[in-house]
Amino acid sequence: MNLNDQQKKIVRFLFRFGALPLFFLFCFFVFTLLLFPYAKLRDYLVYSFNAQQRATNGQFELHIDDVGPWWRLPGIKAKGVHLKSLQSDPSKPPVEIDIEEVRGRVSVLPLLILRKSVSFQLDAFSGHVDGSAVISSSERHVTVELDGVELGEVEIVAAQLGLPLSGKISGKVDLFLPEGKASKGNGTVTLEGTEIAVSDGKTPFVTPVGPMKIPKLDVGSLSIVGEAKDGKLQISKLAATGKDIELSGEGTIRMREMAAESLCDIALRFKINDSYRGREDMTKSLFGDPSKTGMAGQGLIDMDPKMKKAKQPDGFYAFRIGNKLGRMSFDAAGAVPTTPTTGGGALTGGGAIMGGGGAGRSGGLRGRLNAPKASDDSPSPASGE
After folding, report:
1. Any residues with CB less than 8 A from the CB of 28 and at least 6 apart, and which?
2. Cα 88 to chain centroid, rounded
3. Is the N end or the C end of the chain the one with fewer CB atoms within 10 Å?
4. What is the predicted pLDDT for the residue at 375?
C-alpha cells in the first residue's frame, strides 16, 4: 500500500505524539512495578500504625508478611496481615486477627481536584470485604461492605464473649467524617447475621461450680441497625430471633478515630428459651428446669452474683455493656459500669460510658433496665471527676 506525502505526515505525527507517549507510560508503569521498594513501604505501614497505637495507648500491634504490586494500577497487595490485640486480662494470651490478603489502590483522576480516593478489598474470615475512602480537605467518606464473613474466625469477637461463635455476617457501614474525625461522624450501619450460634458443645463454659460444656445454642438471625450523628452512633435495633434464645437491645457508641477506642453504652436483654433449658440434664442444671417452679426451677447460673442481679421478673437477663469496644465490660442492669482507663486518666469531653444517649427515656429498653439519667457530657460515676 503506497502512501502519499500527506498520509505519511499524519502517520509520523501520530507516532510521535501518540505511540511514543504511550510507550513511555507503559515502560514507566512496568519498571515502577518491578523496582518499587515494596519492602520499605511495608516497614513504613507497620511502623506508622504501631507508633499511632503507642501514642494513643491502643492495644493493637500490626505485622505484615509481604507487600507487592496489584494488577489494578496503581495498587498494592499485602499478604499475611496479622493484627494482634492485647486482652483486658493480662493472664490471657493476645488475640490475633489473621487476614490472608488485602488489596488497595489509589484512583489517579480525583487527585487532580485535590481529593484522594482509595479502594480496598479483603479476603478474610471465609468471606469478602469491599471498601472505599474518599478523602478531601473537609471530610472523609468511608464505605465498607461485608459479605459472608464467618464470625467463628474473628477471634477477637469470641474472646469478648468467652465462647465459640459461628454464623455469617453481611452488611454495610457508610460514614461521613467531617475533618476526618470519627468523633464527628454521621452515617448508617446495617448488619445482618445468619445461622448465628453460640458454643460448639466442646469448649468449657465457666459456671459457679466449674467449667461445663454446653450444647450449641441457636441464636438464629441477628440484626443490627444504627445511625450516627455528630459522632454518636445510635443503635436503634439489636435483635435476634432463634429457637433457643430471645435477644434485644439498644444503646449508643461514642465513635473514636480508632474503632477499638470507641465507647459503648448498650442495654442488652436476653432469655434462654424453655426448649433449650429442658433439652438435657446438663442444661436443666445450668439454666434451670422449666418444668419446675420457685427455687426448684433455678439453675446453677443463677448462683453467680452478677447473673442473679441481672435476672428480671420476666425471666430475662438484663446487662449494660460499657467500656471501650476493644475491652467491653458486661455489668448487671443497675450496677455502676466499669470505667475504661487510659494511663490513669478519667474520661473527658462527653466520654461518660453509660451516660446520655437516651438513658432516661420513658418506655424505652434502657428505662426498663433502670439506667441512671445522665447527659452526654456528664462524667462517669467511677471516673472521679
Report:
1. none
2. 17
3. N
4. 42
> Which of 250, 246, 255, 252 has the alpha carbon at shortest distance from 267?
250
Least confident of 103-112, 258-267, 341-350: 341-350
Cβ atoms < 10 Å from Cβ of 331: 19
Domain boundaries, the chain: 32-98, 107-272+304-368
pLDDT band with cut points at 50, 70 and 90 for residue 63: very high
> CB neighbours (10 Å) of residue 154?
18
Buried b (16+ CB within 10 A) or exposed e, 272-282: bbeebbbbeee
Q: For the beta carbon of residue 100, count every other beta carbon within 10 angstroms.
A: 12
Question: What distance in Å separates the CA atoms of residue 328 and residue 124, rounded to the nearest whole number?
Answer: 24
Q: pTM to 2 decimals?
A: 0.71
Residues 365, 269: contact at Cβ < 8 Å? Answer: yes
* CA–CA distance, 268 with 238 (Å, rounded to integer): 8
At 29, which helix (H) or strand (E)? Answer: helix 20-35
Q: What is the spatial distance between Cα 112 and Cα 275, in angstroms, rounded to a whole number?
A: 63
Please report, in angstroms and rounded to a whole number, the separation of the first and last CA atoms in the chain: 90
- Rounded CA gap, 166 and 158, in Å? 9
- Encode burial over 8-40: b for 16+ CB neighbours within 10 A, e otherwise: eeeeeeeeeeeeeeeeeeeeeeeeebeeeebee
